[in-house]
Amino acid sequence: MKTAKVLAALLLLCVTALAQSNDDLIKQARKLNNEGQQAQALALYTQVMQADPSSYQAHLGAGVVLDLDGKYDDARKHFAKAIEVAPPENKAQAMRNMAFSYAFELKAADAARYEQPLYDEDIAGKNFFAAGEVANELARIYLESGDLDNAQKWYVMGHEAGLKQTDIKPDGIDLWNFRWEHAQARIAARRGKRADAQKHVAAAKAILDKGANPQQAPFFPYLEGYVAFYLGDTKAAIAALQKADQRDPFILVLLAQAFEKSGDKTQAVEYYRKVLGVNSHNPTNAFARPIARLKLS
Q1: Pairwise CA distance, residues 226 & 222, whole Å
Q2: What's the CA gap between 55 and 81, in Å, rounded?
């Protein structure tokens, strides 16, 4: 009896030690990925998966580094496994990452297969704020994939869901209205409708000027720059985008393209290189990184 207890205790110690070792390897892999060392990060994630084939974090991490390395089909195999083995509280994260993987190739309809169930679930659970954010995320994927009609549809759904939030306060209403004007301005600019785009830019600015959502102010220079870029005013686009968040790879890639259109190839190359220095796995990098990699190749 004592022998069995000793063996069980030793087994528990081994399992605990293995889990701790895997956790340490995953932390190291994340650090390497953040530093742009995708190959080294993948090697560590692979080591974890060899020890624990059902490691959610390892499959998710492997998918991330493979996407950043442009190996999208391989990435999706790991995201599929991550979705399969994810604890309930991580399932949505895994599905969103799969959607982002498709965004790298501008495959919005495929991304929707993973975003829409999350939206439906949030609506069913009356988590309207989260539903609005998911809808807007998918809308942006559609927009940057060139499907303006579906972008419009999902931005409408996001706006309507957000405003259904229980006990929403005036600043919450302003937030969703600002996001809606922001979206309409970008869609109008992509359609070449200058007057409509400028009308929505002005409406977004008027909401910001009320002062209820100061945290949204950094998104306004991006809006001005985006609209100017797609309406063909590269000088205005550069001026506005340089005031926007310089850590956002999508803003950086817009700047790079604007400089390229203006004939300043040196600045364009500098900004494309900055894009490749960002190693996040989200829609903004999904839209930016493939462009930068192609331009610098």
Answers
A1: 6
A2: 9
Q: Which fold has domain 108-209?
A: 1.25.40
Predicted confidence (pLDDT) at residue 7 exceeds the cutoff of 50:
no
**Two tokens, residue 144:** 């940057």
What average pLDDT does the chain have? Answer: 94
Give the type of residue at 37: Q
- C-alpha separations of 24 from 87, 184, 192, 224 in Å: 20, 45, 51, 44
User: Domain 1-98 belongs to what topology?
Assistant: 1.25.40
Six token digits for residue 204: 């977004």
- Does this model's pTM top 0.90? My answer is yes
Residue 21: predicted pLDDT: 87
Higher pLDDT, 10 or 88: 88
